[in-house]
């Protein structure tokens, strides 16, 4: 007799929560406008366009102008949401992000859509694995990476109130909810401790949070107690939570869908080395990806339950 | 700092009642004061971009004292006209105009580019009232101006947006992304003025990366495009205040880099050369 197979958890595209929340907020707040680069479909802005045709500024395939136009709209009293595939927003328009938005201090919400390796088979030109590193180097720009629809929605609400420049990494890869049981799914600048643990901490962000929780479950079966901390605010980082992880669990594995040079792992290491040095493993994307869909590539690079477990076991050596 | 800053300085409202020739004469006086201020600031800082400052001065003067609806008492008034200096390296001319117009304390001008001064080598809106955008890297001002012009329409406040670019700066592709979108949208509340001094940092523009036929380029992007003598205050005033309909306006303002100081005019080495004490005295004498 076969054992009953548990149904896989329902998964969600964070762009849906993003678009629904944006439309809801825009109904009450006339300052909200969307700016995009021929990306109405890929940024899931069809509903916004239908509801507010005049408040969707599609500049065409021109990302430098797109970010500059957003700065000008902010100067004119609006709150622009720049919606653009993350590689082109953060790569092509990086100087505009630095100079026009961050240095000017304009309240613009830069929305990096379909980040990481969401465009799997389209290849490294369309992957955005460098965005966290590039943007972390820009001061006066907050970086938020929601892990599920609840965090996405809460982060969109926060960004309208924030009043300063921010970057939201809005996932396209379907993910299960990881916010159940959280009193507040997203508080700016605060980490979410999703699972207690004593032996090590897995610090993780974005679409990989559910995989970290799976890894912690597998480690528990081997008698290892792993804490799981979801970092939705990469900058500014919740340093107190990182220091607590180092002090209380003595080892840290970081996991991100990005290059590790300069990303979440590097941010965590910068805190750990200053306050309480412990052994770490930094998991991420090691370089330009081969051909493959997103799920294949995440597995290929060990950004899954087994890869995280392997790194944890090495650390506990 | 000097007498001219304590003298009564006209506002666009005041100048609008004058005859064209009287208005041009007043603007010419102010432009000379701006140029003197530029020379003193660069002398004090021992740094700066004197050639471009002097070529753009008449454009800035006509805008700030003849055209722009601004109130130094409320620099962020929602319906104010917007001016963006895309060629941000000519900050000394901008600061001088802002000081004369009442946005900056003239006593700050000698601190230009000194350690911890608010008057950076490129303008910073977070530190200096009247600055609309932090420019410096070239090709950034026009896209921001396009956004401002769209905001003017969307908000219903109907302010005018003016942006000055250098000519060499137009070698940056971002300008043409913005030009295309402004033409496409028919932003007739937007005016770009190209400071066409035909020199860039290292050589003549036409020997480096040809810009001509420049007015034709703007026209091809859907703009009303005209050429003007960029030192003719009356002609600039007429163009800035001419009613527009349906198209953004591109003014290719033919200028002399270093205008007003004979030994600086139209010489490539004066892009950011600093005059000696003797040359400062000579320049101020010529600008009396």
TrEMBL record, chain A:
Keyword Cytoplasm: no
Name of the molecule in the record: Transketolase
Statement: the UniProt record of this protein carries the keyword Transcription regulation: no
CDD domains listed in its UniProt record: TPP_PYR_DXS_TK_like
Family: Belongs to the transketolase family.
EC number, UniProt record: 2.2.1.1
Cofactor: thiamine diphosphate
Entries under Gene3D superfamilies matching the protein: 3.40.50.920, 3.40.50.970
Highest rank taxon of the organism: Bacteria
Record-linked Pfam families: Transket_pyr, Transketolase_C
Domain Transketolase-like pyrimidine-binding positions: 12-177
Stored SMART domains: Transket_pyr
Enzyme class: transferase
InterPro entries: PDH/Transketolase, THDP-binding, Transketo_C/PFOR_II, Transketolase-like_Pyr-bd, Transketolase_C
GO terms of molecular function: transketolase activity
Alphabetical UniProt keywords: Thiamine pyrophosphate, Transferase
UniProtKB/TrEMBL annotation, chain B:
Molecular function terms from GO: transketolase activity
EC number: 2.2.1.1
Keyword Glycoprotein in record: no
Pfam family, any one: Transketolase_N
Domain (Transketolase N-terminal) ranges: 30-281
Required cofactor(s): thiamine diphosphate
InterPro entries to which the protein is assigned, alphabetical: THDP-binding, Transketolase_N
Keywords of this entry: Thiamine pyrophosphate, Transferase
Residue ranges, annotated region (Disordered): 1-20
Family statement drawn from the similarity comment of this UniProt entry: Belongs to the transketolase family.
Protein name: Transketolase
Native species: Kaistia hirudinis
Lineage of producing organism: Bacteria, Pseudomonadati, Pseudomonadota, Alphaproteobacteria, Hyphomicrobiales
